[in-house]
Amino acid sequence: MSNTDFLLAIENLTVSFDGFKAVNDVTAYIDYNELRVVIGPNGAGKTTLLDLICGKTAATGGSIRFKNRELTRLAEHRIVREGVGRKFQTPSIYENLTVYENLEVSYPSARDVIKALFFRVDEEIDARIREVAETIFLADCLDMEASLLSHGQKQWLEIGMLLIQGPELLMLDEPVAGMSVKEREQTAELLKRICKDRAVIVIEHDMEFVERIANRVTVLHQGQVLAEGPMSEIKNNAKVVEVYLGH
Amino acid sequence: MATLTQRLLGSRGDLLALLLLAAVIFLVMPLTLDIFRLNLVGKYLTYAFVAVGLVLCWGYGGILSLGQGIFFGLGGYCMAMFLKLEASDPEATAIQSTPGIPDFMDWNQLTELPWFWVPFENFAFTLIAVLVVPTVFAFLIGVAMFKRRVSGVYFAIITQSIAAILTILIIGQQGLTGGVNGITDLRTLLGWDIRTDSAKYVLYYLNGALLIGCIVIGRYILSSKVGKLLLALKDKEDRVRFSGYDVSNFKIFVFCVAAMFSAVGGAMFTLQVGFMSPSFIGIVPSIEMVIFAAVGGRMSLIGAVYGTLLVNYGKTAFSESYPELWLFLMGALFIGVVMAFPNGLAGILKSDWIRRVFVRPPLAAIDGGAAVRDASPAAKPAATASSPDDNLPRPAGAGR
After folding, report:
1. Cβ–Cβ contact A96 with B under 8 A
2. Chain B residues touching A158 at Cβ < 8 A
3. Which residues pair with A225 in a beta bridge?
4. Paired residues of A37 in beta bridges
5. Beta strand pairing call for A35-39 and A61-66
6. Could you say which DSSP state residue A56 is in?
7. Helix axes A123-135 and A181-194, enclosed angle (nearest 10)
8. CA distance A1 to A24
9. Which residues in B117-136 are b (16+ Cβ under 10 Å) and which e?
10. pLDDT per position as a tens digit, A86-105
11. Hey, which residues 194-233 in chain A have their CB within 8 Å of chain B?
12. What is the reported pTM?
């Protein structure tokens, strides 16, 4: 349990569901301001890995340290408050609130009941909400009920709800799934912009998209790390081609 | 503090609805009904406290409790204990083998007042107990359930079981609680005879004022960030949790508020009706209270009051003529409302065509939480959708 200089240090992480090891002895390090893409065939353990980091699933063994703080024993909301944000695979937004309210509720203050009772949106928060809305291309939709947004806009909104929390590590599970070509391009731009001052982990299947954004790629296969490196290397890795890219 | 008033009273339409309700309670009813009927309305309005609480915890929080009778009953019993002790002074109970204790204790061969009855000789303590006992009980249930992430149907069943257990406990401990008869023969409150017509008027108005007070408090909660978070977590609980909130605390809070409202109703019930019994705690009354909220509109604090009045009026009218049919009618009403009008009476009133006919197009958004936004020229009519009583998209399913 030595200290590391990495933002996130995952060491020997294992989770076992009734004997089935969905994530098996995974070790990976994420640096500050890095954009890491995790790829792998279905069932490789990609989403489970994110679940473990954000506390949704409890690890069976190993450690996850975020800025040298152990996460595996923290409650989910504590992990978030440490600075880890997570976007779910299907857009997870509050359909019956407006876009503005979705962002307002996600703003990281007044997180306990009493403070929330007396919380007011002041000018600073209002400005921040508008700024984030601008970033996620939704500045014109602030007063629209979120259920009326298109699928792609919902994905952006959820990213915005995470951005407004100012996380140091942002985890995105298939952010461009179901998006149009134009939306994909915009999302790629968005990701490049937001990873300037934070680390981002992205799970993605769309290899064209991965090539466009990734600095480093981790390939998972059957719960284990198969390969890790820059995209150019990964593309030509025989093992990766065999289990994933080949078909 | 224009914003504060706004958050308490809501938008202009909400304020009108509240004034209308106040007019119905304070003017129309007393002017048109004799004291017997008015007292009956007063009794119904005590159930409305529970229904208003259910709007908060079920309509907004998504927590279906089938045991709100627990809190109604606990509040009512706290008040009844005080009144019973006052009615049991040694002079009035001189014929008992142990004078000075409640009659049912004497019948059960008790010779001294049980320890937990003693503090209820004090009125101030009683008032605090009315509020605190049910709220603490709700807090304990809430912590035990929500911290373990028990929710939806399981939570409903557990609250229902607790209501059943409490009823059985009260009936079983006849010497301590008055058993199945409850605590009866209540006479005076600090020497003031609560059975007279004038007292009934006073209590009716007090009851109405407290009910309006609860609605205003409820409105404040819903207009605050807590209200938005409740809607948010009903929709996507995980998203709220992974936005850094301890979701269980918000559920516990709203469940406690609902319990406290119910307790106030229970205490007012005891005062107006003159007794309290286990038949207001158990499963059947608890479910009835959910029906009141559903009929009135589970997303509308004010609708819940009308729902309570309407269903109880129907109950009185029909059960006098067709006592054996009434329960079936009630069941059919509940199913019918949930199927056809998921937002109850309030939902019908706020449907689009009514809006078009009777209501002017909405002004700029005047909801409490987002006052800053109103300045924005981009504010569209859709923004009004965030005010508490508005016609929100129907929530999926009763409990999740």
Report:
1. yes
2. 239
3. A220
4. A202, A217
5. unpaired
6. S
7. 130
8. 19
9. beebeeeeebeebbbebbbe
10. 999 888 999 999 999 999 99
11. none
12. 0.88
